[in-house]
Amino acid sequence: MKSLVLKDLYNIGHNAKSLVFMLAILTIAIVPASGVGGYLVMCIVLCSMMTVTTFTFDDMAGWTPYALVMPVTRREVVLAKYGVLAVFSTAGAAFGLVTGGVVGAVVGEYDLSMSAIAELAVIALVGWAVAFGTGSIAIPLVFRFGAERARILLILSYLIPGALIAGVYGLLQMAGTSISHGMLTALLCASPLLALAWGGVMYQIACAIFARKEY
């Protein structure tokens, strides 16, 4: 599977350079106006969306039919896409932390105290969870409808997790359950684990869809 992940990383290299340049420019525009947290989440989500672009490159090269005659299983092909999603999300978090943190410190958006750094780390974890969770939904959509048509449906990958979170929060409010600051912090820190569990469900769905595809 490692070679499948590296294939996508090599193919996306040119687009990644353009994305890095765009994010660097957006740092200067967004951080002073909206803060480091908003930029950090946006950076992670935008980087995770590069996973969909790898499908476009595969279609242009006719790679998938070729891969299926190689000693590679369909489940490995799907798993590699989730691996690429994790790599892009992590790279976005690292880039956003460094660039957003530096610009935020320069413009006085926050100080370099341990509490400020810890807050950014928590935001990065939540941003990673959001990006991986939404990207996990996008992958089955692309396998089902193709890279180009699935782009129209990608909005669903952002609405569904948001609706679920809002629904759970609403149920807790209706039940009169209050969430303490410590509990909220623990939930935020655990969000990557929840995203991985959600990704596992989406992985099984993507495998089922891909198994029925004919090339």
Q: Which descriptors would you attach to this protein?
A:
215 residues; mainly alpha; 87% helix
How does this structure look, described?
This protein is an all-alpha fold and 215 residues long. It has one domain (2-211). The protein is built from nine helices and no strands. The chain has helices at 2-11, 13-34, 36-48, 50-61, 63-68, 74-106, 114-145, 147-174, 181-211. Helix 1 packs across helix 6 and helix 6 runs antiparallel to helix 9. The longest helix is centred in the middle third of the chain and has 33 residues, at 74-106. It is globular and about 55 Å long. The model has no long low-confidence stretch (mean pLDDT 81).
